[in-house]
Amino acid sequence: MAETKITFIRDLDNMNDDYTLKVSIIRLWKSLSDGNPTIVRSIEMILMDEMCTKSEQVCIQEIFKDIIGEVVSLGKLDSRDVSKSLHRLPLQIRNLEGLQVNVTLFGDIAYQLISYLEAHKEVGRVIVLLQFARINVYNATPSVNSYFEHTRMFINANLPEIVTFTDSLVGLRGLQNPSASLTVESSKSYSEFDDFLNNYKVKNVVDLIEPQEVGQYIIVGTIYGIRQDIDWYYDACTNCGKKVQTEDLFSGADSGDASVVLKCNGDNCKNKTISSVPRYKIPIRVQDDSGTITLTLFDRDAYRIVKKRARDLIDKIKQAGDNPRLYPYDLKCLEHKKMAFKIDVNSFNVSNNYNRFGILGYTVDSNVIDALEKKLAVEAGSPANADDTEIASHEVSQETKSLKDAISQTGDNLTPTLPDKFEATSPFKYNSPTTVKKRNVGDTIDVDDYDNVNSSTKVPRLNSKVDGNTGLLIPKLEK
């Protein structure tokens, strides 16, 4: 049996997804919701490995409950998304105490309610029971939404809960028919802001590491690099845009001479002369607070950022005598850009647990990005109170360092912050001109002669006085 490779915390790199760590939990606590202090929003912990490097980790807890109420208002079905699972229906339900809560139904459950209302136009009341609905609480205000295949809905069903609720409602309010006044809101046009905010569900990266449902989603993240184990372009058929294949065509059975021909498997390309043009297909690594994921930036969207065609970059590389498969330096402009991405999760992703996704569109509008991040905060619940409840703690020694040694700090034996670590450890080699760095002789020092150089608190001084004399410092030669 092969020995499992253990990775130290300081060696974690956001260019990969899977690592095996061997750590101790030195502190563990619950983070409570501001809206309801009885609800555990997440479990947070400080981890430490055998190199005494520490890292803070968060396990987010989803909140699912059974909800029952009377439908008192109904919005307009938003069905503009190509994926039916992302069609949404807003409504409000009311409990026996008169509390109203906003509810959003997605996909089949939304159509289930619409079909019921169309078939039962004379119904007196509409009572719905949502089983395993997702609860969001922000500023003490709850909201509810259906959650993929987890949620089930029962409408005016002959269930004990619904029967009891209906009898209690009649006793409180009589036999009036508020459901008969339900109306559908008028349609309206959407800007880019409305499209990103209202037409798609916003997700964290961690929610897509193991894709569960086909659909289109929005994520907000920063590009931290490009995977160089995957080609940055492909040869596209000029007829249909699909990737072309190359075949060696020999002139005879015994001939060693062959010519390369292009082949396309597109339905409309049979019996046609095939030609190709290079197009972008850039595998970028995108990171948010929850994780890192690989997205594919296609030709149209890549051109909007790079401002050059893929074939122009290839010609430039070939003129320099280099391999066109090397990543051109022009693509470095993608790094460290923060964007909102519209991504596509298809059936192949779900059935094969494959977490590389295509980008359908993006925006760099800061107003859209800020609004999306606020929306994520609302759905996840606001940040926990300062007095989080600690449920376990372990003192490593009497000289245990304070919490400032967490990942966001810098110092000895600490994991670097992500932007710094990327600059220091990125394996990417861009096809760029060689730059010769020059250094003044007087700016060199012998680290063995200066104790303060290796100190994390003292600033090393160049051209310091030695034995009262000022002069050039002679580098020590290793034997």
Automatic annotation (TrEMBL):
<dbReference type="InterPro" id="IPR013955">
    <property type="entry name" value="Rep_factor-A_C"/>
</dbReference>
<dbReference type="Pfam" id="PF08646">
    <property type="entry name" value="Rep_fac-A_C"/>
</dbReference>
<dbReference type="InterPro" id="IPR012340">
    <property type="entry name" value="NA-bd_OB-fold"/>
</dbReference>
<feature type="domain" description="Replication factor A C-terminal">
    <location>
        <begin position="219"/>
        <end position="346"/>
    </location>
</feature>
<protein>
    <recommendedName>
        <fullName>Replication factor A C-terminal domain-containing protein</fullName>
    </recommendedName>
</protein>
